[in-house]
């Protein structure tokens, strides 16, 4: 059985996913191409030797439709002989792309493969692919008795179930901004990014954010209808303790150990273990709890063995519920900031987490890292990498 190794990982700084964002004038294909081009330039690999480009994207409509991976690799200057495919596991799309890449290498189907992700939320607004469409169908709605809700309501239900206070959510979110701002200031991010359009930091980081500032924000998802449907909710989820919408891309070069040796490449980590789970689609975002247990069981590791965690901060309540159930030390979680500060460009976030995790392990001298991603519909991906 082959070993799948990570040679390099790179991302763009993340921009505001709004018409005023730094990447709003960049076509998603070209934004994606920036990371695909950078992974080749950084490693010196001949792109003609890439067996496949597997990319994640959530809003696969408009400018991100038509198998956007294929057009991005051509925009990046790859030879026409390089194939590409676009996958959708919602927010975990590019983490799933990494899993598929590693699985292909382990099975012997690939020697060299790029796993990447893209989301331009300024040009393809969130929900564009499902807007006005009954994408679940009547049988699913009947099964759950009309209980399926948007993610913001799920985040509220999670805060309620785990008895998380508004203060806890805001304190965690302020810490995310503080860590992200400090990491950029200390030069910990520069080596893992390719700069685009003169953006030299993640655009949604707010240095100096405090819990007191965040406490002044109104609940983002409360309205008369939801308040009537859920009269026991003490509405706590705000724009400040949720991830923003963003534009960005990321790419990870995965090879077999033999291919890395043959090509003169230095592996930085191996893809140790991976798992995907389904969970309650009402709470929706709690799949990261069983996914963490499952990937650790497969890896033969415990929480104590993990030196760094990257847990996608879709909402502060999601991370804090996960922490309550797993006992994770928050000093090891998202140590250079998470999505609440950095941003969450849906299809790119999985590869962004890998980029952050790889660099954190190297900066801290850690051995094992675990990343986990909550996903719409009650799904979650988890990955363990081992620094080499």
TrEMBL record:
Its EC number is 2.3.1.16. Residues 5-258 form the Thiolase N-terminal domain. GO terms for molecular function: acetyl-CoA C-acyltransferase activity. SUPFAM superfamilies: Thiolase-like. The active site is at residues 91, 344, 374. Keywords: Acyltransferase, Transferase. Residues 266-387 form the Thiolase C-terminal domain. InterPro entries: Thiolase, Thiolase-like, Thiolase_C, Thiolase_CS, Thiolase_N. Belongs to the thiolase-like superfamily. Thiolase family. This is Acetyl-CoA acyltransferase.
